[in-house]
Amino acid sequence: MMCSLASLEAKDLKAIQSLETELGKPLLAVSWHDVRAAALKDDQVAKIKKLEADLGVCLVAVHG
Predict the structure, then answer these.
(1) CA distance 21 to 26
(2) E strands along 1-64, which residues?
(3) What is the pTM of this model?
(4) 48: buried, middle or exposed (CB in 10 Å: 19+, 13-18, 0-12)?
(5) Of 16, 17, 24, 35, which is least packed with CB atoms within 10 Å of its CB?
(6) CA dist., res. 60 & res. 35, Å (int)
(7) How far apart are CA 50 and CA 59, in angstroms?
(8) pLDDT digits (tens, 9 = 90+) for 16-47
């Protein structure tokens, strides 16, 4: 399982923003996705690691 930022309708975003104001804390809305990691060769992993370092992000290869 992996998560990503959720797509929200305007009314849902307003409800979250209202609760953020009430709590005085920011909230993140995430959605869960059922994915499987892809099997990679060593050279493929090396390319991904380099791009991760260059971009400052975490990349995950999945079955598509």
Answers:
(1) 8
(2) 2-5, 30-33
(3) 0.67
(4) middle
(5) 24
(6) 10
(7) 10
(8) 999 999 999 999 999 999 999 999 999 999 99
